Amino acid sequence: MAEATLAGVTVERDDEGFFKNPDDWKEEMAPELAREIGIDPLTEEHWKVIRFMREDFKVKGQVPSIRRMKNEGGISTKELYNLFPKGPAKKAAYIAGLGKPHGCI
Amino acid sequence: MSSDRIEKVSIVISKGSLEGVYPGLIMANGARMEGIDVNLFFTFFGLDAVITKRMDKLKVATVGNPAMHIPTMIGGLPGMSAMATKMMMKEMDKLDIPPVSEFIEMIHDTGAGLYACKATVDMFHLKKEDFCEHMDDIITVGDFYEMSHGGQIIFT
User: Fold this and answer.
1) Of A68, A77, A88, the CB nearest to B96
2) Does the model's ipTM exceed the 0.85 cut?
3) Number of helical H runs and strand E runs in chain A
4) Chain A residue set in contact with B, beta carbons under 8 Å
5) Gap between the Cα atoms of A62 and B38, Å rounded
6) Domains and their CATH numbers in chain B
7) Do A105 and B96 touch (CB under 8 A)?
8) 3-class SS of residue B41
9) Catalytic residues per the record (chain A) (predicted)?
10) Could you tell me which residues are beta bridge partners of residue A13?
């Protein structure tokens, strides 16, 4: 999966589907990305997570940890696991057009 | 999902030093992040990690650990363990690794099960009230094996 067309735009993605360049991402692409990993529809709660991740990534240059999302983003760990079952950090980063998270926490 | 993927793990935490507890907690949290089912079982001194009064007072062992690279006699001086603990906690915080009580709550909130070993609870004369609210239950070894069915068991 090197290149893919999302919301009419061609973007580069890695073998697992994560964006190679987060700047390619547009909000219109999120619902399609979410469907690819079985999350449909994207609710306002999902968007809260995606927006926090995008904002934090812009400032910090890395995908926020689950702890950071809890303490800085006000998103409880329980809620995060409910919204993005079976791997919340990876799934949320996938939909938010960020690279694969590298942290252990 | 392919069948050769790990679907479930049971992690036993049997030691009560800071460096004895964290690896198990990190592995448990990491497993949940990958969508793996997790049960955590605390036994012997590992129980300190879920005892309300003790969980945030765990210390790094500075004696009898050659990998600390300090002579045992020095490691045994008053305050050495406290100092090593402070330093390690500071480094962990930089990596976003939380203090034990926060970590236990986080792991609980991921949907993992947290259990205390009944034999140890009886041996140390502990009660359910001594444990933090996120510890689900006090269970026997038999219960533990039953619960671990179909998964991998990791002893730390």
Assistant:
1) A68
2) yes
3) 5, 2
4) 65-68, 70, 76-78, 81, 85-90, 103-105
5) 27
6) 8-59+99-155 (3.40.1260.10)
7) yes
8) strand
9) 104
10) A19
**For this structure, is A104 an active site residue?**
yes
Please report, in angstroms and rounded to a whole number, the separation of the first and last CA atoms in chain B. Answer: 28
The two tokens of residue A13 are 């993605």
pLDDT digits (tens, 9 = 90+) for B88-140: 999 999 999 999 999 999 999 999 999 999 999 999 999 999 999 999 999 99
Q: Are strands B152-155 and B8-13 parallel, antiparallel or unpaired?
A: parallel
B3 confidence band (pLDDT: 50, 70, 90): low
Which run of H or of E encompasses B62?
Answer: none
Domain boundaries, chain A: 3-95
Q: Is residue A78 over pLDDT 60? A: yes
Q: How many CB atoms lie within 10 A of CB A23?
A: 8
